[in-house]
Design goal:
The protein is mostly helical. Helix content is about 80%, strand content about 0%.
C-alpha cells in the first residue's frame, strides 16, 4: 500500500493526470522518486503514438512538431517549465548567491526567463522536427523517462542548496539507498533500450543526457551552492532538449 501511495503522490505532484486524492504521510513519500519516471513513460507513449498517427495518416510536419512539443507540457502542466524560468531569472540576475536563491522563490516572471524560454523552444522545435524515423522517435520518447530518472538521482545524490523547499522535503523522506538502487536499475534498462532501438541516436542521446547532468551539477554548485526544486526543473528541460538534439544528430550523421 505504501508503494502504491508513493506512485499516486508522484503522479499527483508531477503531472496533471487525475489520480485519487488523500492526505500525504511521511511514510507514503519514501518511494516517490521511483515512480517519477513513470510520468515520462506516459509522455513517451503519447509522443510515439502521435508520431505513428502522423506517419500513417499523412499529417503535416508542422502539426507533428508542434503537438509533439506540446504533449510534455499538457501532461505535466508546465510544472518543470516554471522551475526552468525561475532558474533563468536567477542566473541572469548576476547577483550574489543569496540573492539568486531569493529570486528562485520569487513568483514573478522576469524578461530573461521569457527570452530564454523562447530560445529553448526554438532550438527544441528545430531538433524535434528532424526526428522522424520511428526508432529514433522511440529513443526520444524513452528520453523523457531517462531525464526523470536522472532528475531523481540528482535530487537525492546532489548537495541541496537550501534546508527547506519541496525538493528537499521529498529527498529527505525518501528511502535513499533503495530509491537510488531502483533508479540506477531503471537507468540501465532505459539506456539499453535506447541503444537497442537505434544505436546511433541512442549513443548521441545518452551522451547529451550525461553531459547535461555534469553541466547541471557544476553550474548549480557554482551559482547556488547546490540544487533546488527549481533547478531540478531547469535540468529536466535541458536534459530533454539535449536528448532530442542528440537523437537528431545521431540519426543524420551515422
Amino acid at each position: 500500500m505504501k508503494i502504491l501511495r508513493s506512485c499516486v503522490i508522484a503522479f499527483s505532484m508531477y503531472s496533471k493526470i487525475p489520480v485519487p486524492q488523500f492526505d500525504w504521510k511521511e511514510e507514503d513519500m519514501k518511494y516517490v522518486f521511483c515512480f517519477f519516471p513513470c510520468i515520462g513513460a506516459v509522455i513517451g507513449l503519447l509522443i510515439s503514438g502521435w508520431g505513428w498517427i502522423c506517419r500513417n495518416f499523412h499529417i503535416g510536419s508542422l502539426a507533428y512538431v508542434l503537438m509533439g512539443t506540446a504533449i510534455p507540457i499538457l501532461v505535466t502542466g508546465g510544472f518543470h517549465v516554471d522551475g526552468y524560468m525561475d532558474t533563468m531569472d536567477a542566473l541572469h540576475s548576476y547577483q550574489d548567491r543569496e540573492r539568486k536563491l531569493e529570486i528562485l522563490k520569487d513568483s514573478h516572471i522576469g524578461a530573461f526567463s521569457v527570452i530564454m524560454l523562447l530560445l529553448y523552444y526554438l532550438i527544441y522545435l528545430a531538433a524535434f522536427s528532424e526526428v522522424i524515423v520511428g526508432k529514433d522517435l522511440a529513443v526520444v520518447s524513452l528520453g523523457f523517462v531517462l531525464s526523470r530518472i536522472m532528475s531523481g538521482l540528482g535530487a537525492i545524490c546532489l548537495r541541496p542548496a537550501k534546508k527547506d523547499g519541496l525538493l528537499r522535503a521529498f529527498s529527505k523522506r525518501a528511502a535513499q539507498k533503495n530509491v537510488v538502487f531502483v533508479l540506477f536499475l531503471e537507468m540501465l534498462v532505459c539506456a539499453a533500450a535506447m541503444l537497442l532501438l537505434s544505436p546511433a541516436a541512442g549513443v548521441a542521446a545518452l551522451i547529451g543526457a550525461g553531459g547535461t547532468f555534469l553541466f547541471y551539477r557544476i553550474r548549480s554548485y557554482h551559482e547556488f551552492g547546490g540544487v533546488t526544486g527549481d533547478t531540478a526543473g531547469y535540468f529536466l528541460l535541458l536534459c530533454e532538449a539535449a536528448i532530442v538534439i542528440g537523437a537528431a544528430i545521431g540519426s543524420h550523421l551515422f
